[in-house]
Amino acid sequence: MYSAVIDELIEKFERLPGIGRKSAERIAFYILERMSEDDAVNMANTIARAKKTVRLCECCQNLTEASPCSICSSAKRDKSVICVVESPEDVSAIENTNEYKGLYHVLHGALSPMDGVGPDDIKINELLLRLADGNVEEIILATNPTVNGTATAVYISKLLAPFNVKVTRIAHGIPIGSDIEYADKITIIKAMESRQIMN
Q: Which fold has domain 4-53?
């Protein structure tokens, strides 16, 4: 339907997560029709520069330009607490609350035997190495409330049993502003299990 170069551009965008054929076409045509050549070149250069300069933090495994990252190197962070998450996007979501003041550890995935993802395929060993100095008092397991995320949390909690560290799991339940009648069975079970004493 389109020229070879336009088809190739659409196919490249279609590879991005959450982008289907129609969305890929819209992005491609926006770039070709409405974006100036300078803006398009700047975008391409920014992507290339980011791919070249962004790496994993030597401590928390989050994406960063400088290692250790700004969170790990901050004197204002509580270094006795580590929140374990699946992805850099999870770090961003928690940071946006402005409530959590500890450190992070990014696994870059979750255990998924069906997809061939085992313990050596995510950053679990790097987490264990961080406990060697004995300064960490609590590990918060903030993996997603999915089958794989829960399995990952259980697996890590068992690995942490020999360490002198408190292991906690974030609560799951009914989202604020929603109705119980629309919640699924698992969400209601988790909400009941995570109930708290009212002050």
A: Helicase, Ruva Protein; domain 3 (1.10.8)
Per-residue pLDDT reduced to its tens digit, 135-186? 999 999 999 988 899 999 999 999 999 999 999 998 888 777 888 788 888 7
Domain 78-169 grouped into CATH 3.90.1170.20: no
CA dihedral sign of residues 195, 161, 70, 144 = negative
Spatial strand order in the sheet of 102-106: 102-106, 78-85, 138-141, 166-169
The ranges assigned to domains in the chain are 4-53, 78-169
Distance CA 179, CA 181 (A): 5
Any bridge partners for residue 63, and if so which? 56
Number of H helices, E strands in the chain: 7, 6
Q: Looking at the DSSP assignment, which residues form a beta bridge with residue 140?
A: 83, 168
> CB count, 10 Å around CB of 40?
12
Q: Is omega for the bond preceding 68 within 30 degrees of 0, making it cis?
A: yes
pTM for the predicted model, two decimal places: 0.85
Residue with tokens 């974006």: 35
